[in-house]
Amino acid sequence: MKTVLITGCSSGFGLDTAQYFLDRDWHVIATMRTPREDVLPRSGRLRVLALDVTDADSIRRAVEAAGPIDVLVNNAGIGMLGALEGTTMDMARAVFEANTFGTMAMIQAVLPQFRQRKAGVIINVTSSVTLKSLPLLSVYTASKAAVNAFTESLALELEQFNVRVKLVLPGRAPETSFGENARSRIQIPEAYAELAQNIFAAWGEPSDVTRSIDVAEAVWRAATDPSAPMRIAAGADAVALIGS
């Protein structure tokens, strides 16, 4: 029976991915900054651990508590919507700390055990905005595009140790709380207000979107199918972008 460690499991993609693996008889280590035992059903195959991917000590404690794992899913991250002109460098750094450097730090922490066993899978969840540029998402997109490039290079480093590295690229997911959680990081100067209004109006129009289950299925494929491609789209909108 294999074990997966998933970051960012308090809601959305991470929560549904944890449930998906539990339903398929895996041991699941669900991590979140503030652990909540009520978001997933009780199971002898489930452990909920505290983890802040921007804190080195928190990463060390979580990885030590987790013990040997077979799959690492880097899902934790933060959103940000805003024009670059109105974004402080402190805010930009915070986005990169969570989305980019947090991913790197988690991988560094588990690599020794994967390398020694010559087995393991690393799955980094990024975004379809790296496939099609959108306005007011420049900093967020940069943080995720960096993970894409990092992942593809890392995969070449780790081939010799039989460690697979994959990307899952979700599309826009209005059913999750991701957008709501990003509200405190909206940075839109007055000069960009009209652009923002037009974008919000477009998002309100009917269109293909991504559901959390789409992401869970894509992560499962990345974890269990050695023939899966490096980049796996999750959600109808993301699939359309990769197809194009």
CATH superfamily: NAD(P)-binding Rossmann-like Domain
The poorly predicted ranges are: none
Helix tally equals: 8
This entry's quaternary arrangement is single chain
Over the alpha carbons, how many angstroms does the gyration radius reach?
18 Å
What is the CATH architecture annotation? Answer: 3-Layer(aba) Sandwich
Beta-strand residue percentage: 15-25%
Silhouette: globular
* Number of discrete domains: 1
| Largest sheet features | 7 strands, parallel
Helix content: 40-55%
- The average pLDDT value, as a whole number, equals 94
Structural class from helices and strands?
alpha/beta
Work out the number of β strands: 7
Distance between the termini: 38 Å
- Strands of the biggest beta sheet: in what spatial order? 3-2-1-4-5-6-7
- Supply the CATH class: Alpha Beta
Name the helix and strand elements from N-terminus to C-terminus, one letter apiece: EHEEHEHEHEHHHEH
Q: The CATH topology is what?
A: Rossmann fold
Features:
single chain, 244 residues, alpha/beta, Rossmann fold, globular
How would you describe this protein?
The chain has helices at 12-22, 56-66, 89-117, 138-158, 178-181, 193-203, 212-224, 236-243, and strands at residues 3-6, 27-32, 46-50, 71-74, 120-125, 163-170, 231-234. It is an alpha/beta fold and 244 residues long. Helix 1 (12-22) packs across helix 7 (212-224), helix 2 runs parallel beside helix 3 and helix 3 packs parallel to helix 4. The longest helix is centred in the middle third of the chain and has 29 residues, at 89-117. The model has no long low-confidence stretch (mean pLDDT 94).
